[in-house]
Design brief:
There is one protein chain. The protein has 473 residues and is α+β, with helices and mostly antiparallel strands. It has helices spanning 4-14, 23-28, 50-63, 115-123, 141-147, 154-157, 192-196, 230-242, 255-265, 285-301, 313-324, 326-330, 349-363, 389-408, 427-446, 460-472; strands at 19-20, 43-45, 67-69, 87-89, 97-101, 106-109, 127-128, 164-170, 176-180, 205-212, 214-215, 219-227, 249-254, 275-283, 304-309, 336-339, 367-372, 377-384. Strand 17 and strand 18 form a beta hairpin.
Amino acid sequence: MIDSNFRKALIEVVGKENFDDTNTEKLVYSYDATPGFQAMPDAVIAPRSTEEITEIVKLCNDYKVPIVPRGSGTNLCAGTCPLEGGVVLLFKHLNNILEIDEENLTVTVQPGVITSSLIEAVEEKGFFYPPDPSSMKISTIGGNINENSGGLRGLKYGVTADYVLGLQLVLPNGETIRTGGKLAKDVAGYDLTRLMVGSEGTLAIITEATLKLIPKPNDTKTLLAIFDRMEDAAETVSAIISNKIIPSTLEFLDNLTLNVVEDYAKVGLPTDVEAVLLIEQDGHQNVVEEDIASISEICSSNKAVSVHVAETKEEAEKLRTARRSALSALARLKPTTILEDATVPRSEIPKMVRSINDIAQKYNVNICTFGHAGDGNLHPTCLTDGRDREEMQRVEAAFEEIFKKAIELGGTITGEHGVGVMKAQYLGLKVGASGLDIMKSIKTAIDPHHIMNPGKVFSKESMMKEVVNNDNT
């Protein structure tokens, strides 16, 4: 329960119609797309402006009430689950594209804009916003920025951080600041914009973002390469990159994923092979045709049993849609679907794929693998049942070993899903004790009362120590 005076003050800021603390509404926002995590917030509020957010944050800071900024709840690391109660902040009123600046190649948006809506709006004017998470028809730009989302086009174009030029932020003390802007170059002081991207709502609340646009490619071709051996597909990925070809998309699906996706999407994917690569190239027509021809040759020389170039835009779109539906298709098979994103250097993909298969056999768990193979971002996905405690222990042990193997190969525990709660216990494996200390110091300096999305990124135990040490100083 929240303090009655605090409750009254919040309603005065946002109005009764934008405040809800009924059990039904709180239940809706007690979980996100991450399996196994749920906690009830104390209230759900939907501010209408930056000014209202400023007042809300000041109240939360005064009353020491946690704030959980939330987009569409599609994240897979429990990043928007209100584990310590408090206020869930919605951005349904802050969902406008404020400006498309054709001279500076930027777009300025509020955090509640749906990703695909932004992409469609700028493409109508001949521009291109490349970040394309699989959840783009649901996810919001604010959520993408908080998680530093990637997508199918990450190999060639990068991730969300590569397109965020400036932000308007409300800090935990209620102050509003702007970082960056419509600048091609800006090295004045610390890069606060980059610090906030991927901070998972633990440092500030994003109320506006200025994003970089690029010219829209004038041609795209899509290719499907089929392999009898998963290792051949994985080695083909490395071969394409080593031949100095950077496709816009280079996706990998194993046999189990293929069967489930085909049953779900019915687009004619083969189901009797070990793996396929979905490859796209975009750009000027001559370059695209030359690259697709070279990629076809590389696939064939690496034992692809079939290489097919989509003949129409409709066929290419069906293949893209099938890939984006992988998680939805897999989620139908078992009560619990755990999708991870261990990432390694591209050259280590064959080793990582073999290791995932070996680890799955070792722990007798069902893991299928797909993902953005071109940038080393693999998605080992375990189909299990959260009610089976013994099996879940094996699943957790398998994923811990997968994360350790990724780090051993020069990789990381997450390439795009974020740390949240799911991977907080593994963050030290990647950044080390000193790295953790630096990150926690930044968190405490900006958010001394730890009201911003508490319990995320760092394990609760480590942050408890940080609070105690800070209080003793």
